Amino acid sequence: MGVTSQALELARALELARALELALGLALGVGVWMVVDTLVFSAPPSSPPPQERPRPAVLERVHALLREAGHPRVDPLTFVVVSVLVAIGAGAIVGILIPIPVLSVLTGVAMVFLGLGYVKKQREARYQRLQNAWPGVIDHVRAGIRSGSDVTMAVMALPESLPGDITRPVALFHRDIRAGMATDAALSELAARFANPVGDRIIEVLRMAHEVGGTDLPGVLLHLQNSVRTDIAVREDASAAQSWIRSAAVLALCAPWVVLVVIGTREQTVTAYQSPEGTAILVIGAIVSVVAYRMMKSIGELPVATRWLA
Hints:
Layout: H1 2-41, H2 57-68, H3 76-97, H4 101-146, H5 151-156, H6 164-178, H7 183-194, H8 197-212, H9 217-263, H10 267-274, H11 276-299
């Protein structure tokens, strides 16, 4: 009897070691892919990219999300494929550790949404960085125009001390101008690289000033600067007041599933949730968790500013 118990414990230890090895290999593979993508595929091309074929609507939405999150060179199809592979791997690991089929499926689905949620978190962080930097950008452009520079020179004279989310697109704008691209087209490309609502407003004002001219551009930029600063103050106050709602939503979503994972290694728990009734309980619980999370998040979420030139 003691030998049998030791053999079972050894078998479980071997299964756990295999699962950890699979998780480590999967994480290492994803990390290597992200490093290679950053160092190789994210480098700016030496010539304008060829005309892309129309993508399905889902891939276009993923591409827009990646661009707004600061990953314009990541192919949306590659992102979707990697997300699915990671989800399958996570579901397989959970299936090895906790042999409940529906839990493995739910884990895979959750991993896909976690990947999208992570990219959305990056988009929010990038939006916040840009939001805090726009008043300084407008101030520098106003100073350049008031000193006699035209729109093109005022944009290219933006200092290197600004965040990389601004200096990198501006460097590419400089490259486009030196390559002979028309200012209007270069400004359109700059707006696409910024991928930001406030950036769209600034670029549209500069385009209009470049096309029709006018002496009121510094005053218009000053009004835009004040509007951006007001929006920053309002959003910061609202975000601070509603942060506890978002934290409560995450806690309420994660707590039951953490408890299930903790007790999921017990044989009685596995037997109970492998039955049709247990499967139904897990599926209904997942649906209720998602609906409740979305409701609480919608209460504590600020309206997302829409882009003009997307």
